[in-house]
Amino acid sequence: MECQVGRLHVIAGCMSSGKTGELIRLLSRHAVVGDSVVVYKHNVDSRDGSKARSRLGTEMEARVVGSSAEIMAAGCRVVAIEEAQFFDEGLVDVVRRLLRDGNIVYATGLNQDFRGEPFGVMPTLMALADDISLLTAICQKCHAAGTRTQRIVDGKPAPWDSPLIWVGGADYYEARCPDCHEVPGRPEV
Length: 189
Ligand SMILES: [Zn+2]
What we know:
The chain is α/β, with parallel strands linked by helices.
């Protein structure tokens, strides 16, 4: 692929909004024309090993890394970063360098954490993006548009002060609308 002007497309949304499926769709267009595509995912996300897998059943091979410093591109290519909210703040400079060098960059991630607050580097990446796809899910309680990620621990909504990233706990996540999103202990605004 000829070196072009770098471009950043962020695919954001809550749990179960179809971010990985959309990423795979976007990347498949590059595969058609023979662009070199590399997908990175953080090792915090141990689901599916080295695969980026969508609920549609589509999947792509991914490189599993422990920090943003391990993300690199030799020459001009298409670089995709899955679950960007798990990465350290260094990801912003990594993405800027990739763009400067003419890479096409895609990043998926949760724009809000389980409390409904901006999540990690995602707000910054969205501010730097040339394109944003902000996806919605369906609220698992009332079937309205789901824009929030509900964390549930032992069958109850997780409290405000529970850890931001909690790996290996007996917790799970649901898409919820703002009305059905519950965060016990949330400070008044
Ligand atoms: Zn709802």
